[in-house]
Structure formats: C-alpha cells, structure tokens
Design brief:
Blueprint lengths: L2 E6 L5 E5 L16 E3 L40
Antiparallel strand pairs: 1-2, 1-3
C-alpha cells in the first residue's frame, strides 16, 4: 500500500497515511472524513559522493521541499 499525504478540510491538519487507491482516510486529529489527497514532490536522498543537485530544492529549509516544518518521514529531515 502506498503512502500518501492528506489534508483535512475541517481542521487543515496535514498527515500521511497508507491507503489503497480509492480509500479516503479519516483525519487523525479531528476524525473528519473530509480529507483531500495532496500532491507531494518526490524526494531523492543523496547517495555516497552525491552533490546538492541530487536533492530537490525549494524556498523551505527542508532537504526535499515537500516538508512543511517539523520532521519529514519522506526524506528524514
């Protein structure tokens, strides 16, 4: 099952969940079923000898650019 990022339309909480293709998860914060799947940017981790060009960049301080602060389960930042 793939990991997707969702946002709750009720409380605006952003969360990740493992779901089947048509499954819509409940918000873990408010239990609302009004959630929307977000489109996340892919993240590539630098391997040995990698350069800064190996990682997607954005205006945020995270390594992959898809993080919204805090820890990122996608890239580990």
């Amino acid at each position: 099952m793939p990991l997707f990022e969702f946002q709750c339309k009720n409380c605006e909480n952003i969360f990740e969940d493992l779901v089947l293709s048509n499954e819509i998860p409940k918000c873990p914060q408010c239990q609302s079923e009004k959630t929307e799947k977000l489109i996340s940017r892919p993240c590539r981790n630098k391997g040995a000898g990698g350069s800064d060009n190996d990682v997607s960049t954005s205006s945020s301080s995270s390594a992959c650019g898809s993080c919204r602060g805090g820890s990122c389960s996608t890239c580990g930042s």
